[in-house]
Design a protein that fits this description.
By secondary structure, this protein is mainly α. The protein is 76% helix and 0% strand. The chain is elongated. The chain crosses the membrane at residues 9-26, 46-73.
Length: 87
């Protein structure tokens, strides 16, 4: 179980760091306003659009990847063990 925890934690940390970098660059217009949760630029160029897609992807990958290894994989393993014990 510790290896699943560390895989989920590694996904959460690395993808979360990537999201923080992208959000810091593109969603923080000033230090007086909202930081990391602001809005993206209104007229983004090509590279900003790519960064927006990557940033959103990293955010959802961090959340869903960690939940997959912390909840889904252990639940599947327990169900497999329960099914094997039932036979």
């Amino acid at each position: 179980m510790a290896d699943e925890f560390m895989k989920g934690f590694g996904i959460l940390v690395t993808a979360g760091l990537g999201w923080l970098v992208v959000a810091g660059w593109y969603k923080t217009p000033s230090f007086q306003g909202p930081q990391l949760l602001g809005t993206y630029p209104e007229n983004p160029d090509f590279y900003t659009q790519i960064a927006m897609v990557v940033g959103e992807g990293l955010f959802y990958f961090a959340i869903l990847g960690a939940l997959a290894f912390w909840v889904l994989v252990p639940a599947i393993n327990q169900a497999r063990e329960a099914y094997a014990d039932r036979k």
